[in-house]
Amino acid sequence: MRLLIVDDEHHIVNYLTVLIAEQQFPELEIYKCYSGKEALSIVRTSLIDLMLLDIHMPGMSGLDVAASVTKLLPRCRIIFLTAYDRFDHVYESNKLKHTRYLLKTEDDQVILNEISCALEELEEENNRLLLLSEAQQKSFLLSHLLQQNILKGIVAGHPIEKLERELSITGSDFTLDLYQPVYLMYTQIHYKTLDEMNLTNSSHTLQYLQLINKLLEENFKFSMLDLGKGMLLLFFQPLPPFSSEFEFLQSVANDFADYYFTKYKRQVTTVLYPESSQWNEVYNRFHVLQQYAESSRDAVPLIYSASNAPEDEISMVLPGKDSVNRISLEKKLQELSFYLYQNSEKDYLRTLKQLGMECIHIRSMHSLSAIKIYHSITLTLMQYIDLYHLQEKIISKVALYPLYYIHDFSSWKDAFYYLEKLSRQIFDIMTSKKLDRNEQLVQKIKTYIRDHLADSLTLTTISRIVNYNEAYISRLFKQINGMGISEYISQERISAAKNLLITTTDSMQSIATATGFDTAQYFSLVFKKTTGVSPSEYRRSHM
Questions:
Q1: Which residues have C-beta within 8 Å of that of residue 511, sequence separation ≥ 6?
Q2: Residue 90 pLDDT more than 70?
Q3: Listed residue (48, 49, 22) closest to 109, CA to CA
């Protein structure tokens, strides 16, 4: 969740930031700003869940900010923090939904308790919003199904006039305006098994519709084309148009992917076209998005799974209970390809073993059925090797010619031993590439942080710089670096400050500014909490 602290007094914002950060609320990212105008700018580009808001601020009062925020984000909780105990303020704040009113003189624990209560409310509401009545579910699904033919026509490139005629004949309502531009988002949900991917389940469709509807916060109307096998194309139109539409949809895409990873441990690839499209452009742009998602599959992080540990060497024996039923042979070949592209080594090797036992059962090296199985597997492997440019890395370890020339093998046992060896080599290379990419990504984040210590560094900013989902880079950074991004930023700022204290005679305010602290007072507060001594004491001890 995201918390925004808004107050024109820097020391109050900084004090509250430290106070809340120390509580380690789970998965809470803290934003801060010092004016109403700045607050609205953040709200338009990020889905803020909770605000701590001062009332008396120059330019735009907290009450005016709250009125705008409740229109943009109807479910955002707002806690007013003010130094003035005035009836008119309490009266005005109570007219707004989801607000609380506290005095700045309250104990810290009172403020923290209110924050905790607001976060609990949000969590409960999030769960409740995903539970519709049976009648609402049917209505939601019916509306979705009635729009599928029109959406398919749009993706197929049918002219608007033809679509309008179809709508008039069927009498169906269409959510979107065919004469206004639309934003496009292609989504691929990576399922864990082939059966799960092929399953047609209205409950999955309902999950997608409800979650997108919740995340849009009534800022957009939308339609969703279900392409099957976890592939979706979403169409968005703003209600009404606003200046940061694309940035808002980026947050929606991030939160959609994060929800599915957190709740279902499914990786989601989302590709958002960077500008709105006219309806006659949808056909071409849909294929651009689809191709981009496919070409980026190697770069997009897949589901982390303990089941990817390598299996013991394949033992080629006569068929037993694990032998492949001939009726399911085609399905097993599809599963093998699926597990290869999902980087699920254990499942892949198990399926390869089953196919190998089928060939061993046939015995003859001249059997067309066995040769077909072998070459179906090798074709899949060759396509994969070519797609990810693995040939040069493989040939130094394993020869590739047996993929298309089987006469050197004396038995199918030897042939499938070769396929197992080659497959393990492919998984080793891809794991190494993934680790290298992950380490490079973390190093890129570190470099950006060190080069921009004086700037406002937030997870949202960093995710846009590296072009990865916020939740993913947060998890990956902690997994590889042993600490969270916020903790690393604080560590680097203190480290840079220590160096400036020792090597320069710069003022405390100058050092604070250079290392990303708003004021010298805030800098001193954080420095002493981290090191146990004040900046002045640290400088004197190193003179």
A1: 497, 500, 501, 504, 523, 535
A2: no
A3: 22
